[in-house]
Design goal:
heterodimer, A: 117 residues, mainly beta, 7-stranded mixed sheet, 52% strand, B: 111 residues, 6-stranded mixed sheet, 5-stranded antiparallel sheet, globular
Chain lengths: 117, 111
């Protein structure tokens, strides 16, 4: 019962370095999401993928790219890290709830704490 | 979250007290959800609400879907230390699975 698995748990980068955050879910969900969480600002959506083969920008996509590799995996890439990207990153997958075709409840990973120096 | 106003931002209460928090929106949602985030973990779903006026309980937690469909409330009765964490509301529009989150209410329970 892994649910949503994120790696790594912690990462420190220097400004300008690149890295990819990995996410995998084993619940056969169609939708997957990447959020960032900053103190006092709640959860802000970076990118999401409503189904395999599609990706869309969320609220704060600048400086990030994503890949929906297959139904299970959704990765987030920082091409040139900046100190403003210091944050906690959460991946989530969406499962149907309430018997409605369009309503989802989210299952979150345990997060990646990223520091950019 | 840019479309949801969640209040209060933080609460410091004594063990055994009841807690109330709420979310308001300028938009009508057809689903409201409440999540809890324990320190160092990702949020976990507590309660989902699907109809205006609906009142749903999960143990000591009770949540309500406001009549106007623009607000929702979460109450915790007889708080205990493990209630500590951040509580998020989230709304979903009709026909859209993507959730909009509030900024969270941070709850501290003093023994």
């Amino acid at each position: 019962n892994a649910g949503v698995t994120q790696t790594p748990k912690f990462q420190v980068l220097k400004t300008g370095q690149s890295m990819t955050l990995q996410c995998a879910q084993d619940m056969n969900h169609n939708s997957m999401y990447w959020y960032r969480q900053d103190p006092g600002m709640g959860l802000r959506l970076i990118y999401y993928s409503a189904s395999e083969g599609t990706t869309d920008k969320g609220e704060v996509p600048n400086g990030y790219n994503v890949s929906r590799l297959n139904k299970r995996e959704f990765s987030l890439r920082l091409e040139s890290a900046a100190p403003s990207q210091t944050s906690v990153y959460f991946c989530a997958s969406g499962g149907r709830t309430g018997g409605f075709a369009t309503n989802e409840k989210l299952f979150f990973g345990s997060g990646t704490q990223l520091s950019v120096l | 979250g840019q479309q949801l106003n969640q209040s209060p931002q933080s609460m410091f209460i004594q063990e055994g007290e009841d807690v109330s928090m709420n979310c308001t929106s300028s938009s009508i949602f057809n689903t409201w959800l409440w999540y809890k985030q324990d320190p160092g973990e990702g949020p976990v779903l507590l309660i989902a609400l699907y109809k205006a006026g609906e009142l749903t309980s999960n143990g000591r937690l009770t949540a309500q879907f406001g009549i106007t469909r623009k607000d929702s409330f979460l109450n915790i009765s007889a708080s205990i230390p493990s209630d500590v964490g951040i509580y998020f509301c989230a709304g979903q529009f009709l026909g859209a699975g993507k959730s909009t989150f509030g900024d969270g209410t941070t709850l501290t329970v003093k023994p």
